[in-house]
Amino acid sequence: MTDTKQAEQLASRVDELRTAVAALSPQELASRSGAEFMLKDGSGGLRLSLLGRPMFVSFPDIQARDPQSGVPLPVMFQAMVLYYLHTADGTPLEARWVSFADLPDGRFYNQAFQGYTGKELVKRFGDDIGAFEKAAVKLGGLRLVYGDAGYSFQALPRVALAVVYHRGEEEFPASCQMLFDAQTSHYLPTDVCAILASMLTRELLLA
Q1: Where in the chain is the domain with CATH 3.30.310?
Q2: pLDDT digits (tens, 9 = 90+) for 151-179
Q3: What pTM does this model have?
Q4: What is the distance between the alpha carbons of residues 159 and 51, in angstroms, rounded to a whole number?
Q5: Taking Cα atoms as reference points, which of 65, 104, 98, 86 lies closest to residue 164?
Q6: Hey, what CATH class is 97-206 in?
């Protein structure tokens, strides 16, 4: 899935999502999503991070902005945050990892998902576990006791992803899989989970 296709896919729903999110107060959205409600420039808004990137969602225009400059962020970030705020229902996280195939309707798209996430990471890192670990730590990943190297990433306040890497052996090549908290569907639709995972994949490839 290319960046252009992702952007077009997300942008097509931005205005619709913004209208739906505007129906709720920032305080209610903060409660549901785990974002921080705060006052800025005399009006309320939300502070949160997306894959480690801080942002401020201003009200009443519902724009995700750079917290320092106030400049609106690119459409990819706007859409991702709007999907998150629109879907979030406050369900407690389960602290149990599941595969993309275990998300609603995920099994149908799992092969394609693996192609642009885990397989891309294996192409980049191969059996070099150290290089993968260095990239994961650089992005703020927290070590997990899974595989030969596993790291969790807090992508949004209540959306956690894990990347589990297995070193290749004589009979089996290296493999890598992205996992999600079992309650992720209460915070993002499955197709948006796929886009979020591809964003994390790209960050790891570039780290």
Answers
A1: 97-206
A2: 999 999 999 999 999 988 878 889 999 99
A3: 0.91
A4: 10
A5: 98
A6: alpha beta
